[in-house]
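Database export, one record per block. Field names are fixed; values are copied verbatim from the stored entry.
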Amino acid sequence: MAHTPSSTSPDAARTLALGAIAGLAVLKFVMLVALFTRTPPYPPLEFAPLFGAALALSALCAALIQVGSRWFLAPTGLLIAESLLSFGPHKFYPGESAFFAQTPVVYPAIAVGTLLILVLGGSAWRLYRG
């Protein structure tokens, strides 16, 4: 009989963290593609390096989590902080700045991104404590 990990096991937390990192990377990649193809609503061009850095940080976090390194926490914290700029709940409020959503069309991405940030934070904390 195959063993299935419980929702509190390190394997489950690792899988959740990797899934959240992959989801955030996909959202960042879509934003980067929208920026370069000018598909509305696209982010300002100045954010391209930030998106590239976030994708690189996502790869680093995933690799560190996969090998079981305790050093994953610092880059994961940076990824969470950076992702909050793009997908944090503050984006639901209207504003003139690029740090606020300019149109309700992006609300689904913001909702999913916020959920992924919460999952990543919780699973990273569980991995660190476990």
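Remark 1: The two ends are 26 Å apart (CA to CA).
Remark 2: The CA atoms of residues 14 and 67 lie 10 Å apart.
End of record.
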